[in-house]
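Structure tokens please, single chain.
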Amino acid sequence: MGSLSRKHFLGLKETPADDIKKIIDTGFMFREVLDRPVKKVPSLTGMNIVNLFFENSTRTRMSFELAEKRLSADVINFSASSSSLKKGETLKDTVQNIHAMKMDAVVMRHSAPGSILQLTKFVDAIVINAGDGTHEHPTQAMLDMMSIHEKFGKLKGIKVAIVGDICHSRVALSNIYGLITMGAEVTLCGPPHLLPVGIEELGVNISYNIDEVIEWADVLNILRIQRERMGIGIIPSVREYRSSFGITQERINQHQKEIVIMHPGPMNRGVEIDSTIADGEQAIILDQVLNGVAVRMSILYLLLSQGEEKEA
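Here you go.
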């Protein structure tokens, strides 16, 4: 089956199409495992993996832990809130102490962009990015792409709209890198102040008209609108955002077309998406959750199950 071209999985900006395809193909293999009565394989028996989460997380942390246990790895979960970091210990010292316990891989989420790259300088273990600030969230993008591929049988030529707060979204950036690499067409839609200046240089289209975007797209990937950004000038109110960019039942009904609805979670129901849409037949949100376990199994397996030297 082969391995990936790099030692670590830090982001999708420079990940080649062959690696993305290999992760997705292997992910479908593990989807079959997850559909079995016994949902466990011995692929990573004896491997030690630590999950370092310096930000709150439910979905990503649970998904990684389940993926690791489904592969029969030994798992340690690290909580920053109860660690020596509270006593003044540096990230470097904390990580190196953990690594001295002979970890084979480290999965980390941190609020600082670029922290995941810094981690690779502290440890010899394989490093996987579970989200670094507003930079990238590559495993979320991989599960999104796997879910689109599952629906359409391909990524090339599929029209994907990413809707919402692009500026503060690591999910959006990783999706843009991955989808463009795989030949999909990408349009970004949201309030002007929530679209980064110069983002068109990545090969995406920009639109401020959600109805035109719905008419164009095969897939809507809807991002959470962070409530802390409302009422401070960036987004004046829930009502205004919902009116201008919300994926409402009325808006979808007007277009009378088949369209795939995605959301990375957590959702603000009644703000960026109506409950009837999120729970409807066109939504594949729960498929994304299951594919998240499968694609993380795939990444862990491809990085850890072979002994060849890979480019760092």
